[in-house]
Design a protein that fits this description.
There is one protein chain. The protein has 15 helices and no strands. The chain folds into two domains: 148 residues, no CATH class; 115 residues, no CATH class. It starts with a helix and ends with a helix. About 6% of the residues have low confidence.
Length: 342
């Protein structure tokens, strides 16, 4: 491939698609940030406490779980405090962590899936993919509820050991799942402007983070595919046995390879390959992205999950949390892939 051809690829393929997706992401992220700023995520919080009650967990665990919808770090931190204080033993903590899954996913709906991924994939493919991820997360959470109902007894919890600061948080958070932002049903013009300004600032920050990465990764992928096909084949060949066993199109191995590097770029890479003129149908594309998600999840486990969980729990219990999260996600992603390919 000549240098001019590289320029042609960048100007003719990369820049127009990145520009289009950037505009869509800007609109989507702004709307999503406005939803978060005006308390839409807070409305979801009230759903957690009935689940933790059915799992034989104390109300304080419900507060920690609902907090995950706004801040996974804060939610996990609260659960760690409950475990350290003796409110929850190890079994109860692992079940609470499992129930956490869907509420951690809720945050990503508003910050990533709706504003970023759906504009890239298109409405039909995007909704099916996000719906599949939501079903996977909800299934894991319901598994945690069922496990709590079957495996937990009063011996696994000690509400009297709850630190006083978390008891105060409970009083504030159990009033119908409302946050302080919900106290005034009709916010004044100043708060409306402040929320709108915060949403725009968050959108700018998201674009600064996503667009350069998207531009760089997608450019590199296209140039490598065109100029160094043997190298790309070697990379994607690692995933080919798995995609072949599943009966996915030959191009699926390449998509999985890009997903291992970056999820957003993987979606960007597969989007133009979906449809009557491409190798992917809606269902095979979503199945491929879920398989790519397993590979991406394996990479992110070493880069982010292990350091985070070890920091929260310590190495011994953190390893149990990582192992449980990994096993449940792989199992339910595999089930989702099987359903899509039937």
């Amino acid at each position: 491939m000549s240098e001019a051809t590289v320029v042609d690829v960048l100007v003719g393929q990369v820049l127009p698609r990145v520009a289009t997706v950037t505009a869509l992401i800007a609109v989507g992220v702004t709307l999503a940030n406005l939803a978060v700023a005006f308390g839409v995520v807070d409305r979801v919080r009230g759903l957690a406490e009935p689940l933790t009650a059915r799992a034989n967990l104390p109300a304080e665990a419900g507060v920690a779980v609902v907090t995950t919808a706004a801040s996974p770090t804060a939610g996990y931190g609260m659960l760690a405090t409950l475990r350290d204080s003796g409110t929850l033993d190890d079994r109860a903590t692992l079940i609470a962590v499992t129930i956490n899954t869907f509420f951690g996913f809720v945050q990503h709906i508003f910050t990533f899936y709706v504003p970023v991924l759906i504009p890239i994939l298109g409405l039909e493919v995007g909704l099916l993919y996000v719906g599949a991820r939501a079903a996977i997360s909800l299934s894991i959470t319901l598994t945690g509820v069922a496990a709590g109902a079957l495996l937990l007894s009063p011996a696994n919890v000690d509400p009297d050991a709850t630190p006083s600061d978390l008891e105060s948080d409970e009083d504030a958070a159990t009033d119908g799942g409302r946050s302080h932002a919900d106290d005034d049903d009709a916010p004044d013009d100043g708060s409306l402007r402040a929320n709108a300004r915060e949403a725009v600032d968050s959108t700018t920050s998201t674009l600064r983070r996503v667009v350069p990465r998207l531009l760089v990764v997608y450019s590199l992928v296209l140039v490598v595919v065109e100029r160094y096909p043997a190298a790309f084949d070697a990379i994607t060949g690692l995933a080919e046995p798995l995609t072949s066993v599943l009966g996915l199109p030959g191009a699926a191995a390449g998509v999985v390879g890009v997903f291992a590097v970056d999820t957003t770029s993987g979606a960007f890479f597969v989007a133009p390959l979906i449809g009557p003129d491409g190798p992917f149908t809606t269902r095979t594309a979503v199945a491929t992205m879920l398989v790519g998600g397993i590979v991406s999840f394996a990479v992110s486990t070493f880069k982010r999950s292990i350091p985070f969980q070890y920091g929260i729990w310590g190495a011994s219990f953190g390893s149990k949390v990582v192992a449980l999260n990994t096993a449940l996600k792989v199992v339910f992603i595999a089930i989702a892939v099987a359903v899509l390919l039937v």
